Amino acid sequence: MPKVKTSKWSKKEPPKGWDDIEPTLTEYDEMMREAENEPTTGKRKVESGWSVMQVHHKRSRYLYDMFYKKKAISRELYNYCINRGYGDASLIAKWRKRGFEKLCCLRCIQPRDTNYGTTCICRVPKQNLEEDKVIECAHCGCRGCASTD
């Protein structure tokens, strides 16, 4: 996940509507800083990055909802935010495809990251899993992002 580029990186004026979404994106930046700086003592090695992944997901989902669902921001503002690193363009592109509407992260659909060359356990529909067993993704901490759940 790239760092968010601030206004000092670019002399270009933000597009119309930036003032409406800037407070929310600033709030997500603060949440990201807190997640990056939280202590990792007492956590498993894989758990240390989960909070960062969750904030990254929320921030990208916010941009997706504002542009594609609510149509509250323009294409120009959306591209401005993506180019500045506020959202993950690849993840948002997957959300637009059928079957990936609830995808938690891109690592969960990459077969090279698993032992058996399949997708992550969080992509398996809950109806196909044991009822009493709690499933957590090792990559991001997701407990189920199959589109049928």
**Which stretches are poorly predicted, pLDDT < 50 over at least 5 residues?**
none
> What share of residues is helical?
25-40%
Count every helix, treating DSSP H or I runs of 4 or more residues as helices: 4
Please give the number of β-strands: 0
Distance between the termini: 27 Å
Mean pLDDT: 91
What share of residues are in beta strands? Answer: under 5%
Query: Radius of gyration from the CA trace?
Result: 17 Å
**Major sheet characteristics:** none
Give, in order, the helices and strands: HHHH
Shape: globular
Structural class call reads mainly alpha
Which characteristics define this entry?
single chain, mainly alpha, 149 residues
What does this structure look like?
By secondary structure, the chain is mainly α. The protein has four helices and no strands. The chain has helices at 18-37, 50-69, 75-83, 89-95. The protein is globular, with a radius of gyration of 17 Å. The mean pLDDT is 91.
Fold blueprint:
Elements lengths: L17 H20 L12 H20 L5 H9 L5 H7 L54
Concise summary:
By secondary structure, this protein is an all-alpha fold. The chain has four helices and no strands. Helix 1 (18-37) runs antiparallel to helix 2.
